[in-house]
Amino acid sequence: MGGETQRLRLALQNGAWEFQRLQSFKDHQKQVTCIRFSPDGQHFVTISRDRVANFYRRGKSEVASGDFELLGTRTMAGEVTAVCWLDKTTSVLAARDDHELHYFEMGQKVEESLCVNLNALGDKVVSFTVLALSASKDGSMVAACTDRARVIVLQARSSRQLRNLYGAAVNEYDVPSICFSLDDCFLYVTSSLPQPSGAREQEEVVALCGQVAIFELRTAQLVLQLPCHQKAVRCFDRHPFTEMLVTGSFDKTASETEDAALESALVALSKFMPPEKQALGALRAALRRLRASERAALREAGPMAALPRRAALEPQLRQVLEEVEAFVARLGRPRLVTLARSVVDGFCPMRWLCFLESGLLEALQRLFGQLEVIYSDELDAREMA
Questions:
Q1: Longest alpha-carbon distance in the chain
Q2: Which of 13, 24, 345, 362 has its CA 20 to 30 A from that of 166?
């Protein structure tokens, strides 16, 4: 409160956890509403109702080594309402009475590198306020949750709107949270349903008004609503390495929801699994038994390979295939392998697509022998043995 920011350490002392104050900052004139650390922990940004965003970096002098120091300050047109980090040196801000997203680069000083219009028609009309921002893991997308029950998914550093998502209950008085799933296929958004107004109705039924809405980006559909609190969700976050969500609410409780998007996807894929779902149960049990070192090894296995974003030569594409083959070689024989284009990749030359399809099939055949291949597209689905 009062514009103060404190940097704390969570330490274990005499068998009990406690907070230790490391630094205090008072660079705002009004209440600080949000703080966000950069992915590498070398910077953080604070935003406030005083229309100011302050950027801090870890000190490099011997006196300030390990401590943070003010790098720069920016004053916006209105109250700064949302901030996120696109990568370790780029932050994205939104403010009230502003139709743009603002990109800031952290260098020797803070510089505004780009302004992006949030209006699809390119006009300057301000018809909504962005209340929450989130960037995808690979930095290719930015999601903006507005006070009009609309979530805009944009291509990073561009005004191109990839998706508009509707279905989460968010109004101008809410404090929503938003984030992408680990694989960037789903988007989590807090949603607050109207609470029962009558005391008698409240006694008869306990309504879970605080929810998390889950959208599938491929279809732009609301695929799941997770009821989790009796009152509005105040904040939530996703575990950095699993699809576990932790929510906090005005009902003074914290709630955990594990593998929400994964469960929805597994239901759709259940027809490819054994009737008794033994494989699924074994996988869940194995994941729960993993030690920290084993989880780290699993994360470093590189489960995804991305196409080069610029014109590529054949050696570059072969390297992508080698990475995929090396990863698949560490797995057991799969029951099903799918190959699909991402909806955000844009145009993919046919020669790339054919080269990768044939290369992947050859790699799978080398690893697992004879395969049954099913090919389909939007216009003409057909089977080939």
A1: 70
A2: 345
What gap in Å lies between CA 75 and CA 79, rounded to an integer?
Answer: 9
Specify the pTM.
0.65
* Surface-to-core class of residue 264, CB atoms within 10 Å of its CB (0-12 exposed, 13-18 middle, 19+ buried): middle
- Select from 296, 282, 368 the least CA-distant residue to 332: 368
Long-range contacts of 2-8 (CB under 8 A, 24+ apart): 2/26, 2/31, 3/27, 3/28, 3/29, 3/30, 3/31, 3/32, 3/48, 3/50, 4/28, 4/32, 5/32, 5/35, 5/46, 7/68
User: In angstroms, rounded to a whole number, what is the distance separating the alpha carbons of residues 219 and 120?
Assistant: 19
The ranges of the chain annotated as CATH 2.130.10.10 are 5-195+203-266
C-alpha dihedral (183, 327, 39, 284), degrees to nearest 10: 60
**Residues 144-185: tens digit of each pLDDT:** 999 999 999 999 999 999 999 999 999 888 899 999 998 898
**Dist. CA 10–CA 17, nearest whole Å:** 7
H/E run at residue 6: strand 5-13
Strand order in the sheet with 80-87: 80-87, 90-95, 100-106, 110-117
What pLDDT is stored for residue 244 in this prediction? Answer: 83
- C-alpha span between 318 and 362 (Å, rounded): 12
Three-state SS for 137? coil
* Look-up of token digits 């929810």: 211
In tens, the pLDDT along 354-380 reads: 888 888 888 888 888 887 777 666 544
State pLDDT tens for residues 244-266: 888 888 887 777 665 544 455 54
User: Confidence band (pLDDT; 50, 70, 90) for 382?
Assistant: very low
Q: How many CA atoms lie within 13 A of 220 on its CB side?
A: 14
Placement of tokens 């274990």 in the chain:
12
- 31 and 1 in contact (C-beta within 8 Å)? yes
Instruction: Give phi and psi for 161, each to the nearest 5.
Output: -90, 115
- Does residue 95 surpass a pLDDT of 80? yes
Tell me the CATH number of domain 5-195+203-266, given options 2.130.10.10, 3.40.50.1820, 2.60.120.10, 1.20.58.340: 2.130.10.10
